[in-house]
């Protein structure tokens, strides 16, 4: 999905106020509710979109993402969380992995599940080439194209902890949190210090967070996969 660079995950929405916003709490919705603002379905030009719905699972409402030779995300724009609220926690589940995926190649850049965190890196800190690419993306896609992102993924074969820049752009750092199908069908809890992950990925202090997006993609491999996402919560880092 990253082949459209950061333009593919642009968040062209009015930023919502921070307070552990309910837009991050899927459990506040009802199963069958439509996906409405401030949430936004993000799709790629000339690529079939994923199907998203709020569904009931184990007594709570979660977000379900169905990918059938398709790609897409649900984008959630945010005003910057407080500086001390950099610990990101969520739960996710997949029905299966994408067997033919290969995250080291553009032709295999598919994932059973993924979660992006978008950051507002100052343009003046980027290289001329990076600034030019982002300006073009903002011109043709959205003025809110982010300048950097972390992408946490459920991969098919790389070891947990494996990380690399996207094969499409050096402004997205991909980090494997789950790998393989041993935990398919099970809810898995994740918790990450996104400020620490950003520093390790980009070599500088994390700037303001501007949004989050969740989804999956199978447009490269032409496979099918289903992912479910529970509430997304920012909090203080673990001591």
Mean pLDDT: 83
End-to-end CA span: 35 Å
CATH C-level label: Mainly Beta
Q: Can you write the helix and strand succession as a string?
A: EEEEEEHEEEEHEEE
Tally of discrete structural domains: 1
Strand proportion, as a percent range, falls in: 35-45%
Q: Main sheet?
A: 7 strands, mixed
CATH architecture: Sandwich
β-strand number = 13
**Low confidence ranges:** 1-19, 135-143
Number of helices: 2
Helix content: under 10%
- Adjacency order of strands in the biggest sheet: 1-4-11-6-7-9-8
What is the radius of gyration?
A: 16 Å
CATH topology-level name? Jelly Rolls
Concise account of the structure shown:
This protein has 239 residues and is mainly beta. The protein is 9% helix and 36% strand.
């Amino acid at each position: 999905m990253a082949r459209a660079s950061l333009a593919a995950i642009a968040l062209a929405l009015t930023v919502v106020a921070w307070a552990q916003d309910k837009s991050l709490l899927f459990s506040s919705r009802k199963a069958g509710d439509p996906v409405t603002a401030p949430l936004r379905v993000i799709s790629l030009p000339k690529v079939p979109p994923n199907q998203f719905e709020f569904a009931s699972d184990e007594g709570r409402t979660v977000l379900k993402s169905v990918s059938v030779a398709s790609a897409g995300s649900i984008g959630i724009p945010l005003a910057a969380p407080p500086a001390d609220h950099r610990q990101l926690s969520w739960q996710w589940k997949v029905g299966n992995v994408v067997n033919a995926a290969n995250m080291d190649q553009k032709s295999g850049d598919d994932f059973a599940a993924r979660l992006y965190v978008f950051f507002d890196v100052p343009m003046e800190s980027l290289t001329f080439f990076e600034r030019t690419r982002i300006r073009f993306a903002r011109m043709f896609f959205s003025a809110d194209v982010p300048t950097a992102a972390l992408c946490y993924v459920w991969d098919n074969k790389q070891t947990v902890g494996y990380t690399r820049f996207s094969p499409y752009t050096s402004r997205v750092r991909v980090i494997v949190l789950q790998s393989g199908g041993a935990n398919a069908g099970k809810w898995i809890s994740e918790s990450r210090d996104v400020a620490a992950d950003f520093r390790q990925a980009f070599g500088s202090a994390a700037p303001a967070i501007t949004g989050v997006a969740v989804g999956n993609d199978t447009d490269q491999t032409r496979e099918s996969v289903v992912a479910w996402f529970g509430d997304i919560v920012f909090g203080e880092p673990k001591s």
